[in-house]
């Protein structure tokens, strides 16, 4: 563990190669030699110039009485320390400059390593100053690129799954339609009753295909980023009451009752009523279809702060826990047979989720032995 920690710390520091250390030493030696030559040249010039000597002695005469000493103007006590300070500063600046260039070379080397396809690698160096900003920016750019690549892969995978699911759901009824129409085409029926049976079956299967195509069109439409929202002000409680009344007859046939609880009795909000009706139609249809065995469908509408919270509940069989997280995935069905008789297209809840998201809200599901609930949060006002 200690060895690994030391290795990580070593990675965070840039370790110079022997060649780079030699370059630094050579840089220092050359700089020192040049500075010494420059110092000697300046000293010779100062010592040999009569004009400079006059200026120095005139200045010395003016201030000698104040300083009460000649040591201040001595070359060995004044000029040489200045040379030393300047030389050290120049040497430090050149070595640091060369060291920064070496750090930059290491960063570029790491960047080339990442560019070769090692997208899980990040530049590990902990630096200071502008180079630290460069390293942070590069790592952030790589993170963004990797995220974009992953998103692109998910999109491609999603497209493949979409094509597979659509092909499966269209092929099944299409095979039946072709089969029964083929029987009619080949006169493989004995009487008028058989003919009507075949045409009726083909008609039902064609309606299933149309339902799938309509849902698929609706799904792709609401998933568009620029889909228009026709916002109007309406009463959510009143809208739910009307929808519940529309489903009462079907609920009676299934031996179920629909109850609406609104608090307060009137909840004004902004939204696209046409799209929201599609959401609640789907939720109520699912409650009637999959809530068989239950007796009650309860719709609670509440105003909570700046949101309208709508819960559509039924007391039918619970949804398995493993299925709850996948309910809003397109083409997902709790029953795995994918039968058109027992399930829809599998796009209804995905469409509902997209419509709610367009309104700036969210939807989720809960289920236990008592209630299966679909809970929607919608903002009351939209800018």
UniProtKB/TrEMBL annotation:
It is an enzyme of class 2 (transferase). Its EC number is 2.7.13.3. It comes from the Bacteria. SMART domains: HATPase_c, HisKA. Keywords: ATP-binding, Cell membrane, Kinase, Membrane, Nucleotide-binding, Phosphoprotein, Transferase, Transmembrane, Transmembrane helix, Two-component regulatory system. This is histidine kinase. Residues 98-150 form the HAMP domain. Residues 165-382 form the Histidine kinase domain. It is found in: Cell membrane. It is a multi-pass membrane protein. The chain crosses the membrane at residues 21-46, 78-96. GO terms for molecular function: ATP binding; phosphorelay sensor kinase activity. GO terms for cellular component: plasma membrane. Pfam families: HATPase_c (PF02518), HisKA (PF00512). It comes from Enterococcus caccae ATCC BAA-1240. Its main location: membrane. It catalyses: ATP + protein L-histidine = ADP + protein N-phospho-L-histidine.
């Amino acid at each position: 563990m200690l060895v690994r920690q030391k290795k990580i710390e070593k990675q965070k520091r840039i370790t110079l190669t022997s060649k780079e250390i030699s370059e630094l030493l050579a840089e220092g030696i050359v700089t020192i030699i040049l500075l010494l030559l420059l110092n000697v040249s300046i000293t010779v010039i100062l010592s040999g110039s009569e004009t400079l000597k006059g200026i120095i002695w005139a200045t010395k005469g003016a201030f000698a009485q104040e300083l009460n000493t000649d040591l201040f103007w001595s070359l060995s006590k004044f000029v040489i320390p200045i040379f030393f300070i300047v030389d050290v500063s120049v040497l430090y600046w050149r070595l640091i400059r060369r060291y920064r260039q070496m750090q930059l070379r290491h960063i570029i080397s790491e960047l080339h390593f990442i560019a070769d396809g090692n997208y899980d690698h990040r530049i590990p160096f902990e630096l200071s100053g502008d180079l630290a900003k460069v390293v942070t920016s590069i790592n952030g750019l790589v993170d963004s690129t990797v995220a974009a690549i992953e998103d692109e892969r998910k999109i491609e995978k999603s497209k493949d799954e979409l094509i597979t699911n659509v092909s499966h759901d269209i092929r099944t009824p299409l095979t039946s339609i072709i089969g029964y129409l083929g029987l009619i085409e080949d006169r493989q029926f004995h009487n008028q009753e058989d003919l009507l049976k075949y045409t009726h079956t083909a008609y039902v299967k064609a309606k299933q295909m149309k339902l799938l195509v309509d849902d698929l069109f609706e799904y792709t439409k609401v998933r568009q980023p620029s889909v228009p929202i026709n916002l109007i002000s309406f009463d959510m409680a009143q809208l739910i009451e009307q929808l519940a009344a529309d489903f009462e007859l079907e609920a009676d046939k299934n031996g179920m009752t629909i109850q609406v609880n609104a608090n307060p009795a009137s909840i004004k909000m902004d939204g696209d009523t046409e799209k929201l009706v599609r959401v609640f139609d789907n939720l109520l249809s699912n409650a009637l279809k999959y809530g068989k065995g239950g007796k009650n469908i309860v719709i609670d509408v509440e105003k909570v702060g700046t949101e309208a919270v709508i819960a559509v509940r039924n007391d039918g069989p619970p949804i398995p826990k493993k299925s709850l997280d996948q309910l809003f995935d397109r083409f997902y069905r709790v029953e795995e047979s994918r039968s058109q008789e027992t399930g829809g297209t599998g796009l209804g809840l995905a469409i509902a989720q997209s419509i709610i998201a367009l309104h700036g809200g969210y939807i989720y599901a809960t289920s236990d032995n008592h209630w299966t609930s679909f809970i929607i949060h919608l903002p009351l006002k939209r800018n």
